[in-house]
Design brief:
The protein has about 800 residues and is α+β, with helices and mostly antiparallel strands. Helix content is about 35%, strand content about 20%. Strands 10, 11, 12, 13, 14, 15 and 18 form a 7-stranded mixed beta sheet that branches. A 4-stranded parallel beta sheet has the order 2-1-26-27, covered by helices on one side. A 4-stranded antiparallel beta sheet has the order 6-5-9-19. The two termini are about 65 Å apart. The chain binds one RNA strand of 89 nucleotides through helix 8, strand 11, strand 15, helix 11 and helix 19.
Length: about 800
RNA sequence: GCCCGGGUGGCGGAAUCGGCAGACGCACCGGACUUAAAAUCCGGUUUUCCGCAAGGAGAGUGCGGGUUCAAGUCCCGCCCCGGGCACCA
């Protein structure tokens, strides 16, 4: 049969149309098969899919198809992270409602999705900007409020002038806004809503142990650092002469006899009482200077308050300073400075001539001598010059001194976390309204559950200036108090959009439920997510919030799992010809453009071929051409060889061996490390061999090879492999076939090739049956013609033989 | 500064457990087919030296040491690149 040319657009269009309304990607509700939940992070509907998305989805899709072929009941959903600022900014720029803009973008992106043939169960599609979805954000918020996990407080908050809203700590990168890397965040005092993620800090940290092995170590480390657990002691110094306490937090209470001053943060509440007007002005200047500090270090500065405080252990009186490097937001906002044993304190005290007093000596050394110390000694050691504690190792002193503080009532052992509560109020329109009402009589009153959802008004003018645009919508703002019926005002802030993405993967399990966020029974079946796939940039934002939500939901009795995802895979970035893709550089490789030029199969396969999925990949158009050529080679070969006239079959053994080796390799990779680049390379090797041996393959062998070839390519290039399947006379949807099995006997080479080295250099190769013992290999190697010249006239010192691998002859 | 990754041909990358470095692809060169080109198919391509050639010898995985019969892979010390954290008491 003559070969057919590879017309990718015709093939892809044909199957695209046939699959349009097909239902075979649907997850089954009541299945006897084992379940597999594979999930890619949901995209923001910016309007276009780019090559980075395609990479993410190609990895997930390959896995989903493989799992289907392995007989799993696969859940593979997709949705839209549809709330957020870009829609609002677009609305201001184009005078179009955010909703309209968003829906249009979703439609466009979904079209591209379908063009690529990703295997999503679109019946479960979730769009977070729909009231059917965000009402459950509100519902969760109310549940958290009931449990005291949602609360309101005034705090200094990160304000991005470009976003015109506050940001959570997680959304501040190097002092700048996560979306505007050139825009420094300002500190503003505002009253806003917080979620008490700190209540779960310990669990978030402890449960990382469950994720070991399934999540990248890098992500876990970042989370550990972000949570920042620190074990230490809180102790009260007392202000002289009135005795009011200054509480400090330290991890090194064993060094407290070396404390030579107490330093307060410039915004410490006590400052109001102890500073004169000049001091207050200086403190304020420090706070302001820090607000627009450069990322990086600023010079340590401070001044003496004129007051003294008493060390609760030694009874010593030390000066009280204000220092710009002491953070109000961490610990107690006050520290004891022990310059001899802390680098920062050392730097500060040297600068201002405050005494340095060593009290810890190295375990196998002597106490440092002052004056003359060049740097702080920060390690554990033996406590010296510290009254009754002298002679104790640091670890013991820490424990016993904490216990004393507790007993005497001037302090306690304490654990401090770096993570702070999650500020979720946003002074913007396009987000979930916070379901709260402010009543002049009753105070803050939650919207009753029966009144949910609090729907975002549609007709609204958005200017982007100042307060939430919702404030200008009287019919939204003006309500009656659910408690007393008096006139009241609705909360006009909306929720951080990270709330939306904190639980969307639960909604996929029961996406159309109008009575509850989901049916817990369905969650019990599908969870945990077996494989989550996304970018590493979410390592501490989305991924820590999601873990928090899951734990809260578990405590609400809604889910049984403590963690959302058993395994996480973070794929590498896609860059274009050596440079990072960005809109401003105009080098963004769009998905439609790709599909246009080479077809979806080629685009998907190239992005998997170019590098292992966890690594950065460099998109080069010439490289994509290589894959296009390869798919053409496969297609033409298949079409011209089926049905096939009888041929000798003398190469059957060779070809089938390669085939089974390839099946083995790819199967193992899917189960372990996902190096699809080498999987694809191995199929290329197989095809190269097929070309070389084409005339000598029997009809039966050819059929087996072609069928399995189509199956092997199905996860990576679903269109063309389906077309080949049909050409072969195959029935039904390709990825509903079983994944090909390999025969280990067939996959094995007949004989082992054994490398013969002399002094570690390869001199010859011999073949021997597998399992030939070294006793037989050695003489054969020594007798080899190519080896002899290197051995003759020399003394054979020793011979190392590794069966099935090599013989190394050491001569002198 | 601290903690992770990483450094292999002209390029992307392979070598999964210490055992043949450079699979596979790109680019390039040559050949076949063609009036010609494209497409396609076949072959070559780390490098130095010896040789007309077939072939042979040596070097080589960022740099310097080490362990080992054997090191891209393990150990020690550096250099460079990428990422994360960075006054967290």
């Amino acid at each position: 049969m003559p070969e057919k040319p590879y017309d990718h657009s015709q093939i892809e269009l044909k199957w695209h149309e046939r699959w349009q309304d097909a239902t075979f990607y649907k997850a089954e509700e009541n299945s006897s098969k084992p379940k597999f939940y594979v999930l890619e992070m949901l995209p923001y509907p910016s309007g276009t899919l780019h090559i980075g998305h395609i990479r993410n989805y190609s990895i997930g899709d390959a896995l989903a198809r493989y799992k289907w072929m392995r007989g799993f009941n696969v859940l593979h959903p997709m949705g839209w992270d549809a709330f957020g600022l870009p829609a609002e900014n677009a609305a201001i720029a184009n005078k179009r409602p955010p909703r309209e803009w968003t829906l249009q973008n979703i439609a466009a992106m979904k079209k591209t999705h379908r063009r690529f043939g990703f295997s999503y169960d679109w019946d479960r599609e979730v769009s977070t900007c729909e009231p059917e979805y965000y009402r459950w954000n509100q519902w969760f918020f109310l549940k958290m409020y009931e449990r005291g996990l949602a609360y309101r407080k005034e705090a200094l908050l990160n304000w991005c002038p470009k976003c015109a809203t506050v940001l959570a700590n997680e959304q501040v990168v190097d002092g700048c806004c996560w979306r505007h890397e050139d825009t420094k965040v300002e500190q503003r005092a505002l009253v806003q809503w917080f979620l008490k993620i700190t209540d779960y800090a310990e669990q978030l940290l402890d449960d990382i142990a469950q994720l070991e092995g399934g999540w990248p170590e890098r992500v876990l480390t970042m989370q550990r650092n972000w949570i920042g657990r620190s074990e230490g002691t809180e102790a009260d110094f007392t202000l002289d002469p009135d005795g009011s306490p200054i509480r400090v937090f330290t991890t090194r209470v064993d060094t407290i006899y070396g404390a030579t001053c107490v330093i307060l943060a410039p915004e410490h509440p006590l400052n109001a009482a102890i500073l004169d007007d000049e001091g207050k002005a200086r403190a304020k200047a420090m706070v302001d200077a820090r607000a627009n500090r450069d990322p990086g270090d600023i010079e340590k500065e401070g001044f003496f308050t004129g007051r003294y405080a008493v060390n609760p252990y030694s009874g010593e009186k030390v000066p009280v300073w204000i220092g710009n490097f002491v953070l109000m937001g961490y610990g107690t906002g006050a520290i004891m400075a022990v310059p001899a044993h802390d680098e920062r304190d050392f730097e500060f005290c040297r600068k201002y001539g405050i005494p340095v007093r060593p009290v810890i000596r190295p375990v196998d050394g002597v106490l440092a001598v002052e004056p003359g110390m060049k740097e702080a000694f920060c390690e554990y050691g033996i406590v010296e010059n510290s009254g009754e504690w002298s002679g104790l190792p640091s670890e013991d002193a820490r424990r016993r001194m904490s216990a004393l503080a507790e007993r005497k009532g001037f302090g306690k052992a304490a654990i401090t976390y770096r993570i702070k509560d999650w500020g979720i109020s946003r002074q913007r329109y396009w987000g979930t309204p916070i379901p709260m009402i402010h009543c002049p009589a009753c105070g803050v009153v939650p919207v009753p559950e029966r009144d949910l959802p609090v729907v975002l008004p549609e007709k609204i003018e958005i200017t982007g200036a100042g307060r939430s645009p919702l404030e200008n919508v009287p019919e939204f703002v003006n309500v009656t108090c659910p408690a007393c019926g008096a006139a009241a005002r609705r909360e006009t802030d909306t929720m951080d959009t990270f709330i939306d993405s904190s639980w969307y993967f639960y909604r996929y399990c029961d996406a159309r439920n109008s009575q509850a966020p989901f049916d817990p029974a369905k969650i019990a079946y599908w969870f945990e997510i077996d494989q989550y796939i996304g970018g590493v940039e979410h390592a501490i934002l989305h991924l820590i919030y999601s873990r928090f939500f899951t734990k809260v939901m578990r405590d609400l009795g809604l889910v049984q799992n403590s963690e959302p995802a058993r395994r996480l895979f973070t794929q590498g970035m896609v860059i274009a010809e050596g440079v990072k893709m960005s809109k401003s550089k105009g080098n963004v490789v769009g998905a439609d453009m790709l599909a246009e030029k080479y077809g979806a199969d080629t685009a998907r396969m190239f992005v998997l071929f170019a590098a292992p999925p966890e690594k950065e990949v460099d998109w080069r158009w010439e490289g994509a051409e290589g894959i296009y050529r390869f798919l053409g080679r496969v297609y033409r070969f298949a079409t011209r060889n089926v049905p096939q006239e009888e041929r000798s079959g003398e190469s059957d053994r060779k070809v089938l061996r390669k085939l089974h080796q390839t099946v083995k390799k790819i199967t193992e990779d899917f189960e372990t490390r996902w190096h699809f680049n080498t999987c694809i390379a191995s199929v290329m090797e197989l095809v190269n061999l097929l070309y070389a041996e084409e005339a000598n393959i029997s009809a039966t062998a050819m059929r087996e090879v072609l069928e399995k070839l189509a199956l092997l390519l199905a996860p990576f290039a679903p269109y063309v492999s389906q077309e080949i399947w049909e050409e072969l006379g195959g029935e039904g949807v390709l990825f509903h076939q079983s994944w090909p099995a390999f025969d280990p006997e067939l996959a094995r080479d007949d004989e082992a090739e054994i490398v013969v080295q002399v002094n570690g250099k390869v001199r010859s190769r011999i073949t021997a049956p597998f399992g030939t013992p070294k006793e037989e290999l050695e003489p054969r190697a020594l007798a080899d013609d190519k080896v002899k010249p290197f051995v003759e006239g020399k003394q054979v010192v020793k011979v190392i033989a590794v069966p099935d691998k090599l013989v190394n002859i050491v001569v002198k």
